[in-house]
Design a protein that fits this description.
The chain is of the alpha/beta class. The chain contains 13 helices and 16 strands. The protein has a domain of about 300 residues: Kinesin motor domain (Kinesin, 3-Layer(aba) Sandwich), CATH 3.40.850. Helix content is about 50%, strand content about 15%. The N and C termini lie far apart (about 140 Å).
Amino acid sequence: MEPQQRSPLLEVKGNLELKRPLVKAPSRLPLSGSSFKRGRDQMEDVLEPEKKRTRGLGTATKFATSHHRAPVLTTVPQAQGQTAAPKVPKKTGPRCSTAVATVLKTQKAGPAVPAQKPDTAAPPKLGGKKPGKRPAWDLKGQLCDRNEELKCYRERTQTLDQENQQLRDQLREAQQQATALGAERKTLEGELARVRAQAEQGQQELGNLSARVLELEERLGTQEGLVQELQKEQLGLQAERRELATRLEEQERRLQASEAALSGSQAEVASLRQEAAAQATLLAEREERLHGLEMERRRLHNQLQELKGNIRVFCRVRPVLPGEPTPPPGFLLFPSGPAGPSDPPTHLSLLRCDERRGTLSGVPAPPTRHDFSFDRVFPPGSGQDEVFEEIAMLVQSALDGYPVCIFAYGQTGSGKTFTMEGGPGGDPQVEGLIPRALRHLFSVAQELSGQGWTYSFVASYVEIYNETVRDLLATGTRKGQGGECEIRRAGPGSEELTVTNARYVPVSCEKEVETLLLLARQNRAVARTAQNERSSRSHSVFQLQISGEHAGRGLQCAAPLNLVDLAGSERLDPGLALGPGERERLRETQAINSSLSTLGLVIMALSNKESHVPYRNSKLTYLLQNSLGGSAKMLMFVNISPLEENVSESLNSLRFASKSFGVPTQIIKNYHSALAGVAQWIERRPAD
C-alpha cells in the first residue's frame, strides 16, 4: 500500500509557516501605512496560488485527514535569516532621533515567544476539537479553514496597526516637545544676548566713571599743590612779619604798609584769576555758538542750493575768435532778467535762417526764432571769474559733505575744455573751473581749521574713450594701459566706487593741482575733426575726494567733487565717404552720443523720481552714480558757438540740455521769489 500523499495546499501552508512566521513584538517603532498594506497584499498573493491549485484538483485525488496547523507566533532572530517584523525607515536629523529615543524609553519590551520549528508547529484547534484532514473533495471546508487563517492574520495586522498608530502619536508628541524646547532655547539665547549687552554697557559706564574719578583726582592734586604753595607763601610772610616785628618801632609803620600792599596784591590776584576763569567760560561759549552758527550756515546753504535746484543748467556762449566771421545782428539775443537789466540773464533767443525754405512767391521764409530758458546764461563777454563766482557756492556744498557734479557739454570747439581747465600760458584771468575750485576749497578749509576742522583732498583724473576707462595721471610704462582700469566697489558692502589701477594723488596746494592738469592734458585722447584741430574724443572726469573731521566733536563728512569735460557732441555727415580715419571718428562719435544719451536718460529718471535709473548703461553714469542721485548737486554747462554756421549743432545742444536738464519757467520764478524771501530773513537776523 502506497503512502498517502500530502496535499499541495498543505505544502504551501507549511512553506508559508516556515518562511513567514508572525512576530509578536509589542514594542516596535512606528511603521508607515504603506508597509502594512504591502504585507497583507503579499500574504494574499501567497494564499492565492494555493486556492487555484485546490480548484484544479479532481475528485479522484484523495486527501488524508490530518489536523490543521495553527498559525505560529514566534520571534525569529535576524541571524537565522528569518523574516522579522517590518523595519522602521531611518530618519535623519536631531529631532527625529531624539523623539525615537524618547518613544523607545517609554515602551516596555514584551516577552518574545520562542520560535517553533515548522515541523513541530502545533495545529490550530477549531471548536475545541482536533480537526482531521479534510478530504480533497471538501473544497468549501478547506476554503473556510483558509478564511479563518486569513481572519487571524488580519486581526494580528489590525493589532499591529494600532500599536503603530500609538507609536506615531508618541513620536508626534516627542517632536512637539522638541519644537517647544527649541523655541524656549531661542528665547533664552535672546535673553542671554540682552543680558550680555547690558553687562557690556555697565562695563562701559564703569570705565567712564573711572576716567571721571581719575580726572577729579588729578584736579584735586592740582588744587592741593596750589594750597601748599599758598601755605608756603603764607609761612614766608609770617616769618617776614616776625622779622619786622623784632625791628625798631619806627619801622612798624612801614611793616603795616607792606602788609596792606600784600593784601591788596592777593586780592588783585584773586580778581585776575576770577576774570581769567570768566574769560575761559566765555571763550567756550563763543566756540559753542560759533559751531552752532557753522552748522546753521551749512543747513541754510544747503536749503539755498536746493531752492536753486539740485539739477541746474547754465548756458555759456563763447566769444568770436580772431579770424572767424562776425555773426549777423540779432542772431543771438539775451533778454534781461525779471528784475531788469541789472538782473543776470536767464533766457536765450536764437534766430535761424533756412535757405531751403521759401514762400510760394519765391521770397525766402522769415527766420525762425528759438527761445530757451536756463538757470543762468553767460553772454560771450562773460569772464572765467564771473562764471566761477556763480558756482562757488555749489563747490562749497562739496566741502559741507554733499556730492557735487559739474558737466561741460557742447559741440567740438564750443569752449568746454576752456571752461573746465582754462587757457594755456598760466594766465590767472583765464584759469578754468578746476584750478579755481581747488583754490577756493583750500582757502575755505584753512579758515575752518580755526574752528577745529581738518580736511584732506585726494585727486584722480580719468577719461572714458569708447567705453574704456583710462588713467590720465599714468606715468612711465603705465601710459596707454587704460584697458587695465575697471570700475569696482571699494570693498564688500561698500557703496563707494573706485577705478582699479588708477592713481589717487593727495593734494594740498595749487602747484600740485597744476602739475596734475598738465599731465592729464598731455595724456588725453584728441583728434582732428571738421570743427576743431584738436578735438577731445573722450569724457574726462576729474574727481576730488574730500574728507573732513572735527576731532573735538567727533564729526566727519566726506563727499566727491566731480568736474566732467564731456566729449564733443557733433554728428557726422551720413553722406560722407568713410576712409580709415573717418571710420575711427564714426566709432568714436557713436560711443560719445550713446553715453550722452544715457546721461540724459539718467537725469530724466532722477528728475521724475523713477524707481529704476539706468546707471549701468554707460561707463560715465556708472562711475558718477553716487554723485547724481539723492542729495547730490548737479550743474550742466551747455556751451555753444556764436557762429551762424554752427547753428544746427547749437540748437541740438540747447534742446538736449532743455529736455534732459531744463527747468520750467514757473519753477525759475518760484525760485527767485523764494530766494528773495530767504535773503530778507537773513537780513532780519541780529548780527552776531
